[in-house]
């Protein structure tokens, strides 16, 4: 049975046209029967013809008819420059209704496109559709759709309706084409890692976090976000499929969501009854125009963790009386008798200056590398202020990042305040072939001494900080250089690596004496996508090692750290480790397993031997234990084994809200027990619900 008629069909946005009416150089899209009509009648003819064609072909789906549904569907469509009808978005609760509307639009004929200054252009329209259909005479364009300049003047005199006219249009997500970051989560990034690393892609995967519009060229976020959508009720859609709050205007949009990380667990070797994390927060993000985006998230958290994690958090406590720094989060104050309270705020502004340049300013984290770890710039430390410039063209991407960091130890504090230091780094990524990528990295850290502040010398966007460091005083900064590489063996196997050089002496390297000056580290890894031809099965193996004294400095403030945490590997230096990771995802179900075995060298710090063996990057090189014969694992040699298994269900793919459970086993075996480290085994069980937008690292 055919139905006909619409409540209203009106023009909503016509990007090429001015706002105050149509000039003699502008024409509406035109069906063949409208080609001879008068200019002023073009709009009416277009709408009436479209209405007639639609109602002649539309069939109300049987399911909709049987359930006596009454409501409204919203269709946003475009007439392209070629005169084709293109559906942009359909808002309807029945999938059958969406399919029928899509079918009718696909059968519409090709027409003459709209023009502007005599050139074809596209036009976008909003099409409200009452269900069930009943004929209602269309409003005249002069009455509702288009208000002339003269009519506007009359309306302004009669009443001011500007405020009431600000209402949300049907929300069409623009996140996927935006300049917003994809939240930095290993599980989240694993979903599109394979697509980003296909042979022949001109992507640059080492600089993270990624921007949505970079990833969307290779990965279909819309398909992921729409997965499993079938809920009609507003509450169901908000919990399972959508953002909590959305608003969209003609040239702006924003979303708001609640953030939670609610975990409860048990450390079976602890006397404490249970562990927990209680994080609540809110995310607000959006866009103004096509090129400017903003994001902010605020967390309020209380928690207590497994004993070994608590001890580490307390061992890096800041000056001033607060009991701990929660790794990756920030300074914590006491909560109840045995917990911590650690609020965190992150946010940024992102602006696309042109097709080649993007600038970001915010408070958050950065990561450089293709591995699970990074020896150059990692996301394990607390958030910090940063300014980042990305330049992309041809086969290269060049990233400049400037950061403000803090040293929060008592011995470097000044008049009760924390010591500020700054970092600038450059990273150049070049796709030399369709398979091989080479990256060049350098960074320099300097302190705010002699009223130096942020040294403008380091704003130089051209690589080679060593020469700048020399010209400003060789002891005024600490420069690090590095290399990255990636080779795409095929679409399933990627090989990658890093090499970091803090300091080295050619004479000492080739002399074979293993001098302390050879402060080096490297990483080797392999990724296997769709392993053994099982879709979405991911395997990864990685080896990391860093020689003693790397990242430290003789001027103790100039270490490669922030808030008593390393900016590179979470173990600092003087270690080697091997990592194995497996991940699998099927629709909204996911699981992972991780195994890490490492050898580390700690200081003794027992009063009889207070020498520096090269693991703690916050100690001065002047206290080093050896000049030559320096080996990885020297000092209080410790073998550590860590394993973690996690499984869960993605409740809402749009916000990445997950229900999960995890089990951690850790074995820590030092040569000598000290006040800070001792032999122990830990079994830690956790279950919870979490908005997964940052990485937790428990491998200390």
Automatic annotation (TrEMBL):
InterPro entries: Wzi_sf. This is Protein involved in gliding motility RemB. The lineage of its organism: Bacteria, Pseudomonadati, Bacteroidota, Flavobacteriia, Flavobacteriales.
């Amino acid at each position: 049975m055919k139905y006909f008629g619409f409540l209203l069909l009106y023009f909503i946005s016509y990007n090429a046209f001015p706002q105050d009416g149509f000039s003699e150089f502008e024409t509406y899209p035109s069906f063949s029967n409208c080609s001879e009509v008068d200019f002023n009648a073009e709009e009416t003819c277009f709408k009436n013809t479209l209405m007639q064609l639609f109602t002649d072909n539309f069939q109300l789906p049987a399911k909709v008819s049987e359930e006596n549904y009454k409501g409204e569907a919203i269709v946003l469509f475009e007439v392209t420059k070629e005169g084709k009808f293109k559906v942009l978005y359909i808002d309807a609760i029945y999938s059958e209704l969406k399919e029928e509307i899509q079918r009718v639009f696909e059968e519409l004929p090709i027409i003459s496109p709209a023009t502007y200054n005599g050139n074809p252009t596209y036009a976008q329209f909003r099409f409200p559709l009452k269900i069930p259909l009943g004929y209602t005479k269309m409003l005249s364009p002069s009455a509702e759709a288009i208000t002339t300049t003269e009519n506007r003047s009359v309306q302004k005199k009669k009443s001011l309706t500007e405020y009431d006219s600000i209402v949300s249009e049907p929300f069409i997500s623009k996140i996927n084409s935006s300049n917003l970051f994809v939240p930095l989560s290993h599980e989240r990034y694993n979903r599109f890692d394979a697509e980003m690393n296909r042979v022949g892609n001109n992507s640059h995967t080492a600089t993270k976090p990624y921007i949505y519009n970079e990833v969307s060229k290779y990965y279909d976020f819309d398909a992921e976000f729409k997965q499993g959508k079938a809920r009609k009720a507003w509450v169901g859609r908000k919990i399972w499929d959508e953002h909590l709050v959305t608003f969209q205007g003609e040239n702006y949009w924003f979303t708001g969501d609640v953030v939670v990380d609610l975990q409860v667990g048990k450390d079976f070797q602890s006397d404490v009854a249970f562990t927990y994390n209680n994080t609540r927060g809110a995310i607000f993000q959006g866009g103004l125009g096509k090129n400017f985006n903003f994001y902010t998230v605020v967390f309020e958290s209380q928690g207590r963790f497994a004993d070994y994690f608590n001890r580490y958090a307390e061992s890096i406590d800041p000056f001033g009386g607060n009991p701990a720094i929660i790794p990756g989060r920030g300074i914590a104050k006491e909560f109840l008798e045995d917990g911590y309270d650690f609020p965190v705020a992150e946010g940024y502004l992102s602006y696309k200056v042109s097709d080649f340049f993007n600038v970001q300013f915010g408070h958050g984290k950065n990561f450089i590398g293709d591995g699970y770890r990074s020896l150059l710039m990692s996301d394990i430390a607390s958030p910090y202020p940063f300014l980042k410039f990305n330049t992309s063209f041809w086969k290269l991407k060049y990233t400049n990042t400037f950061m403000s960091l803090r040293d929060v130890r008592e011995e470097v504090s000044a008049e009760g305040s924390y010591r500020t230091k700054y970092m600038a780094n450059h990273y150049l990524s070049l796709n030399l072939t369709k398979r091989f990528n080479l990256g060049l990295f350098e960074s320099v850290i300097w302190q705010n001494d002699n009223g130096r502040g942020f040294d403008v010398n380091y704003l130089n966007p051209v690589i080679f900080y060593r020469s700048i460091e020399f010209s400003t005083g060789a002891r005024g900064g600490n420069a690090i250089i590095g290399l990255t590489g990636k080779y795409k063996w095929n679409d399933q196997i990627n090989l990658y690596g890093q090499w970091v050089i803090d300091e080295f002496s050619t004479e000492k390297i080739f002399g074979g004496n293993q001098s302390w000056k050879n402060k080096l580290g490297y990483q080797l890894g392999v990724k296997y996508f769709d392993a053994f031809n099982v879709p979405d099965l991911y395997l990864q193996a990685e080896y990391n090692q860093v020689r003693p004294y790397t990242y430290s400095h003789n001027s103790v403030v100039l270490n490669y750290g922030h808030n008593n945490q390393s900016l590179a590997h979470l173990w600092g230096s003087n270690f080697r480790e091997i990592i194995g990771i497996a991940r699998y995802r099927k629709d909204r179900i996911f699981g992972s397993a991780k195994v890490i075995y490492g050898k580390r060298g700690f200081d003794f710090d027992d009063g009889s031997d207070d020498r520096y063996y090269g693991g703690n990057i916050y100690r001065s090189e002047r206290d080093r234990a050896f000049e030559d014969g320096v080996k990885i694992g020297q000092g209080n040699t410790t073998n550590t084994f860590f394993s973690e298994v996690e499984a869960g269900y993605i409740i809402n793919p749009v916000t990445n809200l997950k229900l999960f459970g995890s089990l951690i086993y850790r074995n820590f075996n030092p040569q000598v027990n000290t006040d800070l480290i001792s032999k122990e085994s830990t079994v830690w069980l956790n279950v919870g619900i979490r908005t997964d937008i940052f990485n937790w690292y428990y491998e200390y």
